[in-house]
Fold Sodium/potassium-transporting ATPase subunit beta.
Amino acid sequence: MAALTMNRTWRKFFDEMKEFIWNPKTREFMGRTGSSWALIIIFYLVFYAVLSGIFALCLFVMLQTIDENYPKYEDRLLNPGLMIRPNIQSLQITFNGQNSTWQQYVDGIDSALQGYDQFTQQQRGINCAFQDYFKQDNITAPKQACQFTRDLLGSCSGLNDTSYGYANGMPCVLIKMNRVVSFIPRIIPGFSNTSITINCTAKNDNLLGSRVYFPSTSQGLGSIDLKYYPYYGNRAQPNYTQPFVAVQFLNLTQNIDHQVECFVNAANIITNDDRDKFQGRVCFTLQYKS
Ligand SMILES: *[C@@H]1O[C@H](CO)[C@@H](O)[C@H](O)[C@H]1NC(C)=O
Ligand SMILES: *[C@@H]1O[C@H](CO)[C@@H](O)[C@H](O)[C@H]1NC(C)=O
Ligand SMILES: *[C@@H]1O[C@H](CO)[C@@H](O)[C@H](O)[C@H]1NC(C)=O
Ligand SMILES: *[C@@H]1O[C@H](CO)[C@@H](O)[C@H](O)[C@H]1NC(C)=O
Ligand SMILES: *[C@@H]1O[C@H](CO)[C@@H](O)[C@H](O)[C@H]1NC(C)=O
Ligand SMILES: *[C@@H]1O[C@H](CO)[C@@H](O)[C@H](O)[C@H]1NC(C)=O
Ligand SMILES: *[C@@H]1O[C@H](CO)[C@@H](O)[C@H](O)[C@H]1NC(C)=O
């Protein structure tokens, strides 16, 4: 009895459903006649067309206010940070005489210096003989770029020593300053009048031993020439080559963690922000095991 009631209820439901989908008496499809459906479809077509039109107009107006070559909002990155290559997450370089311990660092430097060979640089950049900012204010895009060839990195260039010094315990580390569009670093005249400088120290500086920088100033500090600034952004200056400073540690005391801190000396770059230890400086740990 219960099953029969159920059956009847179901049948009624399906009949109503069928009639709702197609009612032959009133010729209605899902409760509407053909002309009603046509009207409603036309209404929505027009409605969405107008809506997309308004959206496109807004987007167009917004895009008019944007300069393709320069970020519209810049609130954080005005003080450039430093980074090292090889790019290792832990910022810890530990190695010994065996190549298996340092091959990863050599690979990291190799990949950082891809495109820094003479041939590529001659294709992409110009040979900037001057010693000043390379301002290209004329509206000539794309902007030119100064060459930075790897031979400027001396014994850290990988040209003579493909292990970048790691094979004989005198490791090279590359330091780069992050790009900030239109940033003009200011010199400190006591150090150099044609470049900003880079210096690396350690908590216990004597144990870190002597070190050399490439390229370097006459006082032996790492040097980034002013001609690599300003940077006009990837779109305006696609051939820009980021300069590096290589520091080579020549006489590391073995088997201790050297807490190395490298910082940039420029009049307008902060290096002592306690909350952000990568502002104008970079710290890493270096250990040469016996
Ligand atoms: C280390 O050097 C040996 C001999 O020169 C070579 O066979 C081996 O492939 C090198 N290992 C790595 C990780 O490069
Ligand atoms: C950028 O480099 C390409 C070759 O990679 C070169 O053809 C082009 O002229 C360069 N552009 C500028 C502005 O120097
Ligand atoms: C800009 O370019 C024009 C010609 O294209 C040249 O006469 C002028 O000296 C340039 N200005 C600067 C600042 O380089
Ligand atoms: C590489 O070695 C050659 C000969 O020993 C030397 O003349 C040259 O200056 C060296 N190059 C670099 C970049 O150190
Ligand atoms: C920079 O220039 C000033 C003045 O021209 C000069 O006194 C100073 O010695 C120069 N500094 C360096 C490092 O050459
Ligand atoms: C660079 O570091 C050395 C220690 O290696 C220190 O004696 C020197 O004063 C530093 N120079 C600058 C400009 O900070
Ligand atoms: C290397 O450092 C040690 C002390 O750590 C020192 O006695 C030695 O003279 C240094 N060697 C060179 C070549 O500077």
In short: The chain has five helices and eleven strands.
